[in-house]
Queue: 4 jobs
Job 1
Amino acid sequence: MAARFEELAWRATPLGELSLRRRYDPLVRKDVYEIKLDDDFLMSSLFTAAEIALARLALAEPAGKEGLRVLVGGLGLGYTAQAVLDSPDVAELVVVDALAEVIDWHREGLIPSGAALVADSRCRLAHGDFFALVGGGSAAGPQVGAEPFDAVIVDIDHSPRHLLHPGHADLYTAAGLRRLSERLLVPGGVFALWSNDAPDGEFTSLLAEVFPEVRAEVVRFPNPLQGREAANTVYLATS
C-alpha cells in the first residue's frame, strides 16, 4: 500500500526551505502534490483551475494567430505551462523560474507534468529571476532570446499586494508594467497575471495607464476542503 504522505524532495534555498510532497487525500480520493516554501504553499495540484484558465484566457486574446511565442513566469507544478502547450498555435514556450530545484524536479520526473514538459520540443525551462527581465529583479535575468513575445503569463506572487519577495514590487508599478510591455511584448501582445485575491480596482486602473485594453476575469472553482466555491482573479492587458 502506498504511503499516505511522502516528502519527495527537500532543499535549503536562499529564499527558505523548499519542499515537494505527495499525500493521498481521502476527500478527493487521489494523490495531491504540493510545493511549499517554509510554511507557505506555493502550489497544490488540488487547485489548478485558475492556473489553467490563466493560460487559456491569455491565448484567447490573439486567437487564430499561429506561431505564438509565449513566456511564462513561474513554473510551479507545471499546469499553466502545460495549458499553454495544449494550444496548437504555440510554436515556442519559455518558462522561467527562480528556483532551480523546481526545474530539476520536473526534469527528474518527481512532478507528474515534468515528463511531458521536458519532452515537448517547443518548451524550454529556464532558471533565473523573471523580475530581472523587467528591471526589478535582484539577480541577472534568464536567457529568453531577443525576440519579444505574443503573450507574457505570470503566476509567481500571491497577488499584486501580497508578494513572495519585496524585490518583486517594481513590476506592480506603472514604470515596471511599461518596461514589461516595451521589452517583452510584441505590439498587440498580451500580459496575463494570476492573483489569489479578488479583483483590485486600483491595480486594474494602474494597468490601464499602460495598456489600452484591460480587464479582470474571476475564475471560480470548487474548494472541497471547505465545502464551498473559491475564486481567483486573472488580469488581462493587451499592448
Job 2
Amino acid sequence: MRPGLPPPDPALQQRAWAALVLGALSMLGLSLSLGGDPRRTVYVVALTLLVGATAGWLGITSGSKARRGGTARPRGAVGGIVLGFIGVGLSALALAAFAVFWPQLTQLSTCMAGANTLSAQQACQNQFSSSVGNEFSLLRGSG
C-alpha cells in the first residue's frame, strides 16, 4: 500500500483476493492434471486456462478501479494477475502440446492401461519416446 492513499473499497479488496485464490487454483489444477488420462486432462487444462484468465481479469480490474477511485491497490491483486497469467500461459502451452501429440498420448494411455508388468510399462514408455521423437523430426523438417 502506498503511503497517503486511503485503503481500497472492501468490494475491490474482495475482488483482489478472489483473483489471488483463482490464480492459485489455476496453478493447482495444472499440477494435479499431469500424468492422468489425456482425455480427462484436456478438460482440466482447458478449465485452468479459463480460471487463470478470470484471475488475471479480476486482478487487473480491481487495481484499475482502485486507481480510478484514488485508493491504494488492493492486496492480492498483483499476485492474482501474476498467477493467473502464468496459469494461462502454461495451460495454453499444455493445450498446444496436446494438439500436437494427441495420437501419441492416447496410444501411451491405452498401452499403460494394459501393461501389467514393469517391463510392459517400460515398453510403452519406449514406444512413446520413439513416436514423440519421430514427431519432433517431422516438425523440424517441415519448418
Job 3
Amino acid sequence: MSRRSGILEFAVLGLLRESPMHGYELRKRLNTSLGIFRAFSYGTLYPCLKTLVANGWLIEEPGSAPEDALAASLAGRRAKIVYRLTAEGKEHFEELLSHTGPDTWEDEHFAARFAFFGQTEREVRMRVLEGRRSRLEERLEKMRASLARTRERLDDYTLELQRHGMESVEREVRWLNELIESERAGRDQRRSDPGDPARHDTTSGETDGLPRHRDDTGPDPSDDTVK
C-alpha cells in the first residue's frame, strides 16, 4: 500500500467514524474538510472503499428507501450505497490515531492527522505536534545552510523564492509553538482542578485558548493532492 493510499484510507475511516456516508458525501467532505484531497477522482475513492470493505472495516448498506431504489432503477440509475464503519474499523482507526511515528510528521500525513485531532487523545496530539516542529526545524536549518552556500550564485528571483519558502516554514514553526503551548496550558489547568470532570476528557478536541492559524502558510495542500 502506498503512503498516499494509506492517508486516504485513514481519512475515510475518520470521516465515517463521525457518521455513515455514501460516496458522494465522502468525496465532498474530503474536498472541503481536508485540503490534501482537494482534487481526486471517484476512480481513486471507490477502490479505497472496496479495500476497506474487504478488510472488514466498512460495510455497505442500501442508501435509499425501496420506492426510491425502484425509481432509481427505472431511471437507469443505481441506488446510492452508504458506507458504515464496523466495530473492527473503529478499533483499527483508533490504533492509527495512537500512532506517533516519524511518518506522522511529514507534510501529507500531518495534515490528515491534524484534521482529526478532535478525535485524538491530548498526549498523542502533543507528541505529533512536537515531532512536526522538530522536523520543520531540521528542514529550516538545511534551507538556511543551502541559502548561505548558494546565495552568491542565485539571481534575485530565485533568491526571493527561497526566502519565501523559509518564511513559510518559520511561520508554521511559530504556529506549532502556539499550539504546543496551548496544549500544555490546558493539561496544566486540568491538573490544577482535578474535581472538574471536563478536565479528564482525553478525547475532546476542544482546547481553551487554542490558537488559530492566522494565515494559509501551514502544510501546503497543493503538494499533497491524491491523484
Job 4
Amino acid sequence: MKANVDRLIDGAHGAAAACYEAVGSKTPDLAILISCVGRKLVLNQRTEEEVESVRDVLGESTVLSGFYSYGEIAPFMSSTKCELHNQTMTITTFSER
C-alpha cells in the first residue's frame, strides 16, 4: 500500500465534517476517534495533525478521546451495513440535548 500523509489528514477532516453534518451541524459533547494503527505508522511524527484536523471541524468544546486499532467495523455511509475497514479513521459523536 502506498499512502500519502496529506490525504490521510484530509480524510480525517472529511470524516469529521461528514459526522458533524450528520448530527445537524451541532457541536457534539464527545467524539471517540478510532484510527487504524497503519495510519499511525504512515503519519509517524504527524499523527497529531490528524487529531487537530478533527478538532478544527468539531470545535474546541468537544471532548476528544480515542485509540488505535487493527481495523474498524463501521458503515461506509449511514444507509449501508457495517463492514470491516482498514487504514481508516472512524468517528462516533455523542451529545446530550
